[in-house]
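NAD(P)/FAD-dependent oxidoreductase
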Amino acid sequence: MNEIDVAIVGGGAAGLSAALVLSRARRRVVVLDDGTPRNAPASHMHGYLSRDGMPPSELLALGRDEVSHYDGQVVNSVVTDVVPDGTDGFWVLLDGGDRIRARRLLVTTGLKDELPDIPGLANRWARDVLHCPYCHGHEVRDQQLGVIGGSPGAVRYAQIVRQWTDDLVYFTPPGLLTAAERSGLVARAIGIVEGTIERLMVGEDDRLSGVAVADGSVVPRDALFVPPRFVPRSQLLAHLGCATDDDGWVTADSTGRTSVAGVWAAGNVIDPRAQVITAAGAGSAAAIAINADLVDDDVRRALTGYHHGYTA
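Structure:
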């Protein structure tokens, strides 16, 4: 493959949105995707204007088609490494041994969710064990809901989930609640269960039926919200030397430009709170900034060629 303008690592909403903008700007673009989208377990996505309720896989399929329509390439492949090429571009190394030279790099590899180690929880993820009330709260409104606490900010998270139901239980290990937190939960009629969760109970209809606690009790619940630990899939960015904040997240400006020249990032890989529509917008903003940077480079190249031709 000849030199391309932009290699985009990650084919989710952010990466495809960027590819669409760049391919329409007549840039040579390739999207490299490993086929493991974060929202793959979810049957529907919500909060995306004009696409509310659409299966995530359908959005990605439509996005791929749109990018291809403008001659952008989408390749199913795992990127094993990215290394500077010694000038102002990058070699993108693929798992099959191929490599691509790109003038600019956009990383949109997202994040992974680290879940509490509770038997039965992981295999119900994105079904009736959920993480984003804005994405899924309306679908389980007015049901018996629970929040698994114990992590920083979990009480505040439970207060937000309370917006969707009058029947909410907050599960927490003993001894963690402050007096102010306890008062706030009680004031809004949020039940408190302090103890170790043994496992999740599932009914014959393959739906969550309750939460079994170490004291032998079972608290009936229809759905649970879990604030997971977000872990960015930022190994490529780290290897390139991109600056990070105190929590280990790669830092970038409002367009996604990182501290390394020629490298941008967008979506959940730098913003754990970005929803699908937010990630798509970030990809678009990054694409516009990348194209502007390439235009500046095009001018430099043209001037160099002009001066060489003039002196010759």
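The longest helix spans residues 276-311.
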